[in-house]
Amino acid sequence: MQWTNLSEQNVYQNPWFRVNLADVELPDGSHLDHFVIRLRPVAAATVVNEANEVLLLWRHRFITDSWGWELAAGVVEDGEDIAAAAAREMEEETGWRPGELRPLLTVEPSNGLTDARHHLYWSDEAHWTGQPQDPFESSRREWIPLKVVPDMIARGEVPAANMAAALLMLHHLRLG
């Protein structure tokens, strides 16, 4: 049962996203007006050290008025390599430059409304380059034992679904 997007009309746009109104044909032939938010890709990265600790940021999200642990993340600039964007964001937000990044997973956090794709990476090495360039991105940055991640997620300490998925995948990869 496939829906078909026949056309889209732009309703609003800015440098970060576009809101479009789509004319969608449903499988029965009827039509539906559906809003679509078009977003630039997001890249995120973290590192897991030899002690199986993961580098995370503790930050507040004003939209949901919630606090939680996250990986460093941000939008991919036009023409920028996604892995390079993930490395750049990690260094800007944490002060740690990752070694070779490995793809962890790509998720679509709200594919019923947006075309957002979040590309998450990890490394098993990083080197300290200095204080974060974007210290306003988080209240603190900490090395958290990977073994406690499932309990943190269960307690709601990792509210963002993309971050929870990435951390559970890292937990599985490193600890089984």
From TrEMBL:
Cited Pfam families: NUDIX
Biological process according to GO: nucleoside phosphate metabolic process; ribose phosphate metabolic process
Record GO terms (molecular function): hydrolase activity
Top-rank lineage group of the source organism: Bacteria
GO cellular component terms, semicolon-separated: cytosol
InterPro entries recorded: NUDIX_hydrolase-like_dom_sf, NUDIX_hydrolase_CS, NUDIX_hydrolase_dom
Domain Nudix hydrolase: 38-171
Cofactor: Mg(2+)
Keywords: Hydrolase
Gene3D superfamilies: Nucleoside Triphosphate Pyrophosphohydrolase
The protein's name: Nudix hydrolase domain-containing protein
Organism field: Streptomyces filamentosus NRRL 15998
